[in-house]
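User: Last request for today: this protein with uridine-5'-diphosphate-glucose, please.
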Amino acid sequence: MNVSVVGSGYVGTSVAACLADLGHDVVAIDIDADIVERINAGESPIHEPGLPELIEEHAGGRLRATTEHAALRDTDLTFVAMQTPSREDGSIDLSVVEAGMRDVGETLAEKEGYHLVVVKSTVLPGMTEERLIPVLEEASGKTEGEEFGVAVNPEFQSQGSAVDDFMNPDKLVFGATDDRAYGLLRDLYAPLVEQADARAEVVETGLREGAMIKYANNVFLAAKISTINEIANVCKEYGVDSYEVSDAIGLDERIGASFLRSGAGWGGSCFPKDTDALRAAAREKEYEPVLLDAVVTVNDRQPVRMVDFLERHVDVEGRRVAVLGLAFKPETDDIRGSRSKLAIEALEQRGAQVVAFDPTEAADHMAEQYPDVKYVESAAAALDGAHGALVMTDWPEFAALDAEFDAMADPVVVDGRRIVERREGIVYEGLTW
Ligand SMILES: NC(=O)c1ccc[n+]([C@@H]2O[C@H](COP(=O)([O-])OP(=O)(O)OC[C@H]3O[C@@H](n4cnc5c(N)ncnc54)[C@H](O)[C@@H]3O)[C@@H](O)[C@H]2O)c1
Ligand SMILES: O=c1ccn([C@@H]2O[C@H](COP(=O)(O)OP(=O)(O)O[C@H]3O[C@H](CO)[C@@H](O)[C@H](O)[C@H]3O)[C@@H](O)[C@H]2O)c(=O)[nH]1
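Assistant: Here's the final one, the structure of the complex with uridine-5'-diphosphate-glucose:
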């Protein structure tokens, strides 16, 4: 099929490259000329395992990029994968997607034949029908359900494993109202569903349900982590190893073993934003989301607890403290919602001199927001002379650190991800164990 993807960021680029790999002809459309240039040069614009290889293989062949929205006229189906950031009050800011939809609609005005617009961006129930379809209809002068269709097809890929998650999904959610829309999505994803070891269940549902499934999925996982963090915080008070507890309760199929790693908490571009958006949406309907509020409170306390534990051993005021890991998780350079930000803020408030390291470009992104932090080129350089270290991200290279701790002025290590080996010569503080 001929497919266009409008918005070539973390999601759009991996979706475009994976669809090309599945045999479709794909054009990625972005207003950022640098992204377009990089894709056309066969390079990945983001740090994502497996993606550079796919782009290198398909760029100039089944994958191309452009800044011209007109390119979508030559395709059967357009994914919309633009950002949906949070406003100050946590509610979702739909303005970028609305503006992008206007571009799509204006282009569709001059297209002959049926076209399907598929919302990949995470949007709340009702937003597609009440805000995006009207923009498309007005800009195109056409009627939804007749000359064009609209579906939601939320994306469940995680950063760091986006390619693998896209190629081996546990479910495909098609939210639509129109038989032609379901049919096109079935055809598009057929190579995934028909592959030998496919495990994907196809869920065909309505637009509102499709949108809500995405929020429910993310918010449930965030709540699962906050629940184990709360339990694990109590475990620490009683001298109980919370990881042994997690391993055991994970054996209960009703609980499941994944997402039970307690520690510094959840960050990222999605869990914080989607949890806030659902809380704000609930309040708009005058429903108080008390559990979801607590899920966030527990999460935001974890990095501050780490600084509290450090201060049980050293007074950080005026002292150098190492922060290891700035990306919100390993295998990405994304700092959105990173727990390291809250740790840095707490340290700076208490007068510490923060020295930070991350193996990716995450440090450059962080420097724009936290210019007073000193960013260094290795974990060893961060630890050298430090009066304490906070381990914020579970990068494998931090798990391999050993003699580097001996260069600390006070070898107090507060491990937010349980990856550092306890040993003589280190004052080790687990966050929840
Ligand atoms: N990041 C993830 O892992 C992930 C996973 C699942 C779902 N989502 C959801 O997918 C959506 C996109 O997220 P992201 O992380 O890829 O965002 P992103 O900010 O990385 O990418 C968005 C891209 O859209 C482009 N863009 C903006 N306006 C445009 C326009 N008018 N025309 C063409 N391009 C335009 C931007 O230049 C940018 O490159 C969000 O709703 C997010 O919640 C993200
Ligand atoms: O047991 C765990 C598991 C994860 N985390 C943290 O949770 C955050 C999110 O991790 P993860 O879910 O792996 O990363 P994301 O790339 O943000 O992926 C989530 O958000 C995406 C965007 O919506 C969804 O598509 C994915 O399904 C969903 O897992 C990270 O800070 C992790 O360190 C924990 O603290 N403990």
